[in-house]
Structure formats: structure tokens, C-alpha cells
Specification:
9 strands, 55% strand, globular
Length: 122
């Protein structure tokens, strides 16, 4: 099985701000099997960040999802922070992904967003 990360790097959502990002998934991979957030500084508080995620017109994370639920902070294994939806068979192969982010905190939030892509046949 071939597996990789597709990363949207250096995302900043201003205090009390929102942002919408669109990303095309890599054509070389069959499925998007999970997502994860990694703050720029692992000790940063991202508790005010909420998001939604759609991939290939399918809702993966509903509006208002607390980013802390899928955030890696160094205190647990990375695999425990990944929101895994492998069973949903979300297609990659150049599918479009949309992230809608809202930061309700008093400070900017900076992070990287990871998509986990896989091929079952390899």
C-alpha cells in the first residue's frame, strides 16, 4: 500500500477571522483516508479554531468541528490524532477539497493541514 501526506503549509487564520481554502488532491492516489492539523509551535493553543472539510463534494468534517480533536501536539502518537475515514472511500485522484476555517480566539492561529492519501492496490 502506497501512502503519503499532502500538506497545506503555513496557514494563518487571524484572530476572530475566517478563511476558505481549496486544494486539489494528488492524481497519483486513489483515496483520501484521513486528515490532521499540526500547529506551527506544538505548544500553541488552537482551541478557538473550528473548521469544516469537504472532499469530492462529500462532507468529511461538519461545520463547527473543533480543530483540537484532530490536532497533533506532541503528547500522543501521531496516528491517534488523525481523523481516519478510510472506510468512507473518499476519492483522491484530482478531487477538490475545501476547508472552511473560523478562529474565535483573541490571537492568530498558525498551522499546517495534512491530508493522508493512499493507494490500496500497491
Amino acid at each position: 500500500m502506497k501512502k503519503t501526506f499532502q500538506i497545506i503549509e503555513d496557514i494563518t487564520v487571524a484572530a476572530h477571522g475566517n478563511k476558505t481554502l481549496r486544494e486539489q488532491m494528488l492524481a497519483d492516489y486513489e483515496h483520501v483516508t484521513g486528515v490532521m492539523i499540526v500547529p506551527h509551535n506544538l505548544s500553541d493553543d488552537i482551541s478557538g479554531l473550528n473548521l469544516s472539510c469537504r472532499i469530492s463534494q462529500k462532507e468529511v468534517l461538519p461545520s463547527g468541528t473543533d480543530a483540537v480533536l484532530i490536532s497533533y501536539n506532541g503528547n500522543c502518537a501521531r496516528k491517534d490524532c488523525i481523523y481516519d475515514f478510510k472506510a468512507d472511500k473518499i476519492p483522491a485522484r484530482s478531487s477538490n477539497a475545501e476547508l472552511v476555517l473560523y478562529n474565535s480566539s483573541e490571537k492568530d492561529v498558525k498551522f499546517n493541514f495534512y491530508f493522508i492519501l493512499e493507494n490500496e492496490s500497491e
